[in-house]
User: Fold this.
Amino acid sequence: MAITYQWSGKTLRGTIESGEMAAGSKEDVISQLKRKSITPTVITEKVSKSGFGLKGRVKDKDIVVFTRQFATMIDAGLPLVQGIEILSTQVENKVLAKTLVAVKKDVEGGSSYADALKKHPRIFSELYVNMVAAGEAGGILDTILNRLSLYIEKAMKLKKKAKSAMIYPSVITTVAVLVIAVIMIFVVPTFSKMFAQLGGTLPIPTRIIINLSNFLAGMGGIMILAVIIGLIVTIIQMRRTEKGKKFIDSIILKLPIFGMILKKVAIAKFTRTLGTLISSGVPILDGLEITAKTAGNKVIEYHVLDVKKAVAEGKTLAEPLSRAKVFPPMVTHMIAVGETTGALDAMLSKIADFYDDEVDAAVSNLTALMEPFLMVFLGVTVGFIVVAMYLPIFKLITLIK
Assistant:
């Protein structure tokens, strides 16, 4: 049975080529590439997507547990291959277990642990591989693995905070809009029919609500729905291009409340990632390259790549960062102090801890503000609708008396 493999390799001219190939094994892929005068550097089995979109997925939590257990084994003096073999039988995630078997085979074949992990980019990120390589070179693999597990855990918490900052307000706003829409589309028309039978002139608030209800129940509601769907489709299409991503990300960072929170999340992620890489022995230029790729925001990514170019030209890290308006003066000043004192990694970690706390406080404040705001908004809106609908009834009762 043929398996589809993804490969990349060097040609005789030194250029890098990549592609996909169906073959019975990795050895078949290697032999076919050699016939084409291509020296393979990475060959990975293509993971097929299942109908439910869950097959082949390894969660960050699985990586954290595996990394921490492996660090304990290395620290205890267990041989590398034996540790991988034990964990491949113990991990709950089947995809990770299968990957570890392949990693063990490569290590037994003479590859370094980092090179073996590099063949599985879907599971082990570039940051992970580079830190492992630095740990192997410095003979401190157990220390690096512990740092990695701690880093991934903190990155998971930060991601969760960013999601809660976006999801919670979106959910409660959607609920509020749906409640009002149901009242306007289904409840108000019932009163409208009753008032039409009574005749006479309706109060102004009642006429406003009835006209708005007719608009939403008719073509107006369809038009609003079409605009929302069109806006979502446009954003999705724009996110597929580099310019589109950068444009949307720049708008997100400028949003009144959410922009501030997401900017703090991006700064915390940038400083945490770069600090962890530098403290693990990864060269600063490689660290900046990896940090840019894992920024999660195109505006931040472009700024970090500009910083990398400036550092490569011999400038300090703080100097180009200060020109990027995304990073606050406090961040650049602290980084400058870290560079001067030779404790850049420690200073970056302190900045990350500070912004982690800032994100915590910002999300808590946002949650606390949204609840009373929603109650007031719903109370005023629904109250106005109810009063508008009952005004004609009160008028009728007065006339009868």
Observations:
- The CA atoms of residues 44 and 94 lie 17 Å apart.
- The chain has 16 helices and three strands.
- Residues 3-45 form one domain.
